[in-house]
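I'd like us to work through together how a protein chain folds, taking it slowly. To get us started, please write out a protein record for me. Go ahead whenever you are ready, and we will take it from there:
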Amino acid sequence: MNKCNSVYYYYYKIIIRKHLKKTRTDTQMKFYKVVARPSLLYGSETWVTTKRDMTGLEAAEMRFLRSVTGYTRLDKIRSEVTRKELEISGIQDLRT
């Protein structure tokens, strides 16, 4: 799970902080679908996935999606609402 966090923070420092905050939401979502999500799921087909692993993956995913929508955890917006707003399914749906 440390890899999930390191992937997110790597992209956050280099790309999100400098460039994505100024781009449109659909462009940010394309970046997420093409670069960020495959990086998180790389090699996951061979993992014995536990509930803790899935929780970590979903947390990393939601960190990115909240940065796209501009929400913070203090806004207390549920993950399902954010995913529905961005029209994206969860990582858990991809794993099954």
The chain is about 65% helix and 0% strand.
